[in-house]
Protein 1
Amino acid sequence: MTAPGTIRTSESPAIDDVAGDVDAGVERRLATRRGMLASVGGSAVARLMVMPVSAFLGIIVTRLILDNYGEASYAQYTLLVGIAALLPFTDLGLSAAILNAASAARDPRTDPGLRGVLISCMRLLACCAIVLLTVAVAIYALGYWDTLLGEGLSLASGALAATLCLAIFALNLLISFGQRILIALGLNTLVVLLGALQTPIVLVVLWLTISAGAGGGYIAVASYASTFLISAIAFVIAVRRISPTIGVALRESLNPRVRGERVFNVAWPMLVQMIALPIAMSSDRLVLSHLGSLDDLTEYSLAMQMFTPALGVLATAGMSLWPVFARARAAGTSTPFSPHAMAGMFAALALIGGTLIFVFAGWLADLASGGRIELGWPILVAGGVFIIIQAVKQPYGMALTDARGLTFQAACAIVLLPVNLGLTIGLTPSLGAPGPLVGSIVAVVACQLIPNVLFVRHRSRRAALADEAPESGAHHQ
């Protein structure tokens, strides 16, 4: 019964439906935002928790190797462990394709698109692993490890240890994508915690080796084996989480008649970034070595040793945003929340971290160098600004993780490489140790941050116009 004074029209139910849809949409956005904040915050907190523990255990590992096996064993250990850092591109960027497919899948257990992507990636990763295994065995058989790695490979066990390290690294390619699937499922915090097991595993193996009176030439192999074990644990968890997708994909990948999905449209731009960005940032020390003094090089190295963990925390938190944006794109939404607001939150966290590093830099420098290296305020300010810029860049970069967005970022990375190198070469003679950081700040802002912001805004405007077009058509009818 209609209340007195109430005018009832045929449009009332439609209005109620529209209001309900609006309320539901708002509720979904709020739920997405809450989940996203929980994922980002959980990942950052987990990284902050495990970081000091890993650093402390790493110091113990270093001390045990030096005290029990000497400097030659430690030099060989650090040299072999560093091989992995020289090969960040061995998965050909396929992790990006897997992460996007797993994030976009409505039901990862049955999604055919995800299964097709896994089939293609498994085949390609198997090819990469076979190539790496062949290279490792060939180098060992021809006796070229000493030539490639130099005097750091001083022990008799060095060549075989290097071969085993590269072989395990190759095998790890076959299962490491399990961690990407867990990230896509919103379990980035679990991935961080699993990664924290690496140093304790190495420490246990080292203790057992010392207790047994065995040689220390194969400690680096334990480091690669621990990485493989962590990948295996993540892989098993991923298999159970999205069963039977991975098992079916594995069986079908062995059948040449089964075709997979297209993956290189996402993989190749990711591969370009994996090659270009590390080269751009790692060239700073080389330039300082040639154009700066020894004091400049040691000051820069010590400062980056303090700022790098903060960059790692920001990168871990930023990775949590990738599946959020991927799911939004799959649902037909351009952005589930404002990247601009998220960039402000990341900047605030980086500002807090940079301030703490600035305040405690003197004490940390004395602790690390025994008072032999002093950090001036210019390099500390430059380092703080650098991590803020990298923090602001995270949400925009994660919003551009589809094929077109990654291609755009790859083009920016290619431009960044010569610009960063040129600025570093030009600024180092006059600024000294802060020169490379100042050059990186200018290069990242000009070649990555500003272009990414403009591209995200362009997409947002196009999405808004696309949303308005159907509404205006409906009103016209």
Protein 2
Amino acid sequence: MADRGTSLDFSRIPDRGVVQGEGVIRSVTFVPPSQPPSFSAMIESPDAERPGRGPAIRLFWLGRRRIRGIEAGTPLRFSGMLSTPHGEPTIYNPRYEILAKED
């Protein structure tokens, strides 16, 4: 991935700016058919001391209900403009690359 910003340190997530990093999807959220299509996933550092409880970023795709291959436990490389709506670090429509899982 081209260098488009600072490499992300999950222990020091900035308030905003272009970031890139790698992590592991810890959870995904689906919306019901009655709501506009969107799909989101929480991603955290692959070496988190307490998986599921450390700092994380919400990756949010508008207009999608699902993204094939993105599920809990999927390693992912991502980049995009970080913002903090409602105090939660979020990247809307991030660029992403699904990484191979280690056995």
Protein 3
Amino acid sequence: MATDYDTPRKTDDDVNEDSIEELKARRNDKSTSTVDVDDFEAAEGLELPGADLSNEELSVRVLPRQADEFTCMSCFLVHHRSQLAGEKNGQPICRDCE
């Protein structure tokens, strides 16, 4: 007979806990359900694909490139000088793109 080793194994304690009487008692104890309001509040901030965002504004403060930063000419991201791997054709390249 083949054994499925991925299935969870039940110990004697688990078998005793799952008796019908205990399951019925748990069901009766949970007669009232509570609603977590935080889940609803978190869902309000989500946007669905195709939502109309034409009247929304995005306000982000953009800082110019600092003296100790460079723009990688492969990925076009601004990195700190410590990430400079070298230059290809006179253009700075970061360690990730090297």
Protein 4
Amino acid sequence: MSATTRITVTLPTEQVAELRKLTDNVSGYVAEAVARQIRHQLLGDDLRRHQEEQGAFTDEELAEARAKIFGTAGRAGHTDTA
């Protein structure tokens, strides 16, 4: 088990109520959400840095990446809003 630090987080009451409907482990749920957001931010930073150094991704590169991530079936014309 990794080391943990106890913190206090303030959330809207409605969000806490919905969280408790979804899980009995609010801390674990929030930790996973934070980890996912950190990964998303780091990946975005890496992609921006790559494009600054190498130029914009081509349509072919983007299509290849989508195929690797999502598979090729049913993804034609898919646009992401990341």
